[in-house]
Amino acid sequence: MHQKKHQPETKQRLATKLPIFLLNLLLVAPILITNTFAAEATMQLEKVLSSQTLTDAETLIRKGDFQAAYQLLEPLEADRAGDVEYDYLFGVSAVESNNFTRGAFALERVLATNPNHRDARAEMAKAHYLLGEKDAAKAEFNNVLVQNPDAQTKKSIEKLLTAIQKIEGTTTTFGAYLEFGLGWDSNVSSAPDLQSIGVPVFGGLLVDLGSSGKANADDFMNLAGGISFRQPFTERLAAFGSVSGNSRINGDQTAFDNSTLDLNAGLQYRLNKHSFTAALQDGHFDLDSEGFRHAYGTTGQWQYNIDSNNQAGLYAQYSRLNYTGNSARNADRKIVGVNAAHVFKGDLTPVIYGSLYGGREEARSDQANFLSQDVAGMRAGGQLSLSSKWQLQASLGVELRDNDENDPIFLIKRKDRQYDASFGVNCMPAQDWSIKPQLSYSKNDSNVDLNSYNRTVISVSVRKDFSW
């Protein structure tokens, strides 16, 4: 009864609103249709632009401009991740521009979709290698070789497998370098810069030092080179050796031209994180083309690789020093020390290292006990990698030397405090090439004025390394 009573009124209300609904539909429909087409057109445009981006990135990769390709592709990752073509191009550009982890993730997505993507697998192997994951890299490289790649790819893989073997120390390796440098030295002879000095044994008589007491500055040219080898006998035991030389030629102060020749040979034994080294050493220092000092001896070292970021060790060294034409200075030097290094995580990959050492230099002549001395020192340094081609390097050092007996001329026990500091920039413009500008400062404070000096050296060197 109640529903029937209101039925005519409901029909009347619907009849009134229906024209209004139809009118609104006619007004809104074009807008809805327009928006739909616009959204679809926008999607199509985005696809075209994205495809063009991939084409541009591939062109950059072929040109070797991996960093530009990476910057072009990186903003698209949120939308295009999972697309094999995108992931492969992004993975290659990331790995080759030193963004190894990002590249590895992208290549993993490619291989998850297409496990037989040979190029992606080869690049993935390279990513493992660059990340230091040697076992994973070898497995991936071998998987690619099984697929019979082209000659160029095969050659590249074999080269990287050889590099891994060199890192693992399972193959014979040779290295060499040549270096050329120019510089300026504020005190070529490490002179005290004094005109005269009082000599206590002569009652304080002033002795004119002449040119030998003056700090003479000069330009110089430096030539250096060396060759080394490493021969493994087993995975743990290997022999090594090296020969290196250096010659410094001054512009005017030719009496202080000098050269060095160093030889080194020994054995290294590795056991898990431990490395034990024993070596024989022989060094010659010539001054003005004549023999000045001959040092030979042995060194032993234990090194412990705590983890990928930390390292520590102990070492001991014995040297026999012989001075040509001045046998009174002949001595035996014994040094023991500890060292440590740490690599920080971060974009600049900061590295710090340090060592503490102490020992004794004992004169072999009973008539020269006043030259016997206790030695203690420390060294510290660090490095910042601004990029793959630029590094900042710095070091500091302090050495204390206290003699046993009074000097027969100056009538006191000589005490020296030597300080050294250096700062340099290492630029690597091409593989195996480096350019290094460097500023070095050294200062020796002594209670015997004749042995005090300051010295500043500014130099630029160019070095070429070889390996096979």
Unreliable sequence segments? 1-6, 32-47
The helix tally amounts to 8
Find the structural class using helix and strand composition.
alpha+beta
In percent, how helical is the residue content? 25-40%
CATH class of one domain: Mainly Beta
Overall shape:
elongated
The count of β-strands is: 16
Strands side by side in the biggest sheet: 1-4-5-6-7-8-9-10-11-12-13-14-15-16
Give me the Rg, rounded.
36 Å
Q: Please name the CATH topology of one domain.
A: Porin
Q: Which homologous superfamily in CATH is the superfamily of one domain?
A: Outer membrane protein transport protein (OMPP1/FadL/TodX)
Mean pLDDT: 87
The string of secondary-structure elements, in order, is HHHHHHHHEEEEEEEEEEEEEEEE
Secondary-structure arrangement, i.e. CATH architecture of one domain = Beta Barrel
Task: State the separation between the terminal residues, measured CA to CA.
Answer: 106 Å
Largest sheet descriptor: 14 strands, antiparallel, barrel
Folded structure, characterized:
Helices cover 31% and strands 45% of the residues. A hairpin with a 7-residue loop joins β9 (310-323) and β10 (331-343). The chain is elongated, with a radius of gyration of 36 Å. The protein has 468 residues and is of the alpha+beta class. The chain has helices spanning 2-63, 66-73, 77-80, 84-96, 100-113, 118-130, 134-146, 151-168, and strands spanning 173-185, 196-199, 205-208, 218-232, 237-250, 258-271, 274-287, 290-307, 310-323, 331-343, 351-363, 373-385, 390-406, 413-427, 433-446, 453-467. The protein starts with a helix and ends with a strand. A 14-stranded antiparallel beta barrel has the order 1-4-5-6-7-8-9-10-11-12-13-14-15-16. It has a domain at 175-467: Porin. The protein has eight helices and 16 strands.
